[in-house]
Design brief:
Layout (H helix, E strand, L loop, with lengths): L5 H35 L5 H17 L1 H15 L1 H20 L4 H4 L2 H31 L5 H5 L1 H24 L2 H6 L4 H18 L5 H6 L8 H7 L1 H21 L1 H9 L5 H29 L2 H23 L4 H19 L2 H6 L7 H17 L2 H10 L4 H20 L3 H4 L7
Amino acid sequence: MKHPDAWRIKAILTGSAGNLVEWYDWYIYSTFSLYFAPVFFPKGNYTAQLLNTAAIFAVGFLMRPIGGWFFGRIADRSGRKAAMTLSVFLMSMGSLLIAFTPSFDTVGVSAPILLLVARLIQGLSVGGEYGTSATYLSEVATSDLRGFYSSFQYVTMIGGQLTALGVQMLLQKLFLTPDQLHEWGWRIPFVIGAALAFFVLYLRRHMQESAAYEKIRNERDKGTLKRLFKEHPRAVLTVVGLTMGGTLAFYTYTTYMQKFLVNTVHLTIERSTTITFFLMLIFACLQPLFGWISDSIGRKPLLIGFGVAGTLFSVPILTAVSHASSEWTAFWLILAALVIVSGYTSINAVVKAEMFPAEVRALGVGFPYAITVALFGGTAESVALYFKKTGHEPLYYWYVTACICCSLLVYVFSVDTKKTSLLDKDV
């Protein structure tokens, strides 16, 4: 006899697997840019080449608000399943384009243009993935474990980066030489990502729609910006405020940190990759724990804890990492930062989902979040590298602190969504 919750577990696994592949495809750009930066841009200063690839990374984020709107509208009007299936298909197309784009030496300026087009496609895809997957995972979770189950969105987001780092380590240590990685080996992860995306595409085509959407399937005027801004303006602004500091901290201590260890701490690419891999592994394991804690004590205490600790310790931690005399010192300092950031990452998806009704939930979760991530998360590497290039790197540490402090004010004056969850109306 089939267990009554078997469908729920299958739904969470399917949604999470797709999310992992989406974020793997998104993160391999950042992870392998240390290798392919010279391939797509003219020869010159290495930091300048990284700055160019970081700029395209940031431009990809500019598509995320469009993706948040486009896929949020589809999810609210046609179903979460339809939106999640289309998003993973577009991601696979972007990865294939990067994998087979010729070098600058071969096709000239067409190379960075094609790279830009691929990242725009991926930005559109991942912009839609966050809102739809956050909505879906929150809706299929039981009311007493929403924090725990929805935390798996960030487990798989981190898992995507972890998988990218794992592939990088295998290529570095077992299969390819450094020269081979720089010349052509960096293309392999993008091919792997496209193949995995096609597999997930099959899984998502057979996933079960959420009950919350089924209840409002026949309603009119679903998933429109007009309705979102007219009926829920405070919730939209709250999403922006609570995301600003969290997304900047997340991208600082994850995607940018690998480059920071190479470019500032002066570790080798291989050692930086190894350290980042194990940090991300621990970080992923922290998410369900913090999510489960939020189911017991509420969402607000965790957000305030992140805001206070992030405001007080960002500058000391980043300064100490930049002057770290050993790899272990850097490891423990970054781990401390990731524990702090977990207060935000583990529950931010469910907090947003709990603020909106089913009729505009995917749009409400995804669109304002994507705008904020584009402005602060997507530009994190570019801003950090700019300060590095101009000789004022410590200013970036204060920038991170200021953004977290602004979010802290939002946390303090907002309600605890666990107590006012609109998800309870879907039950």
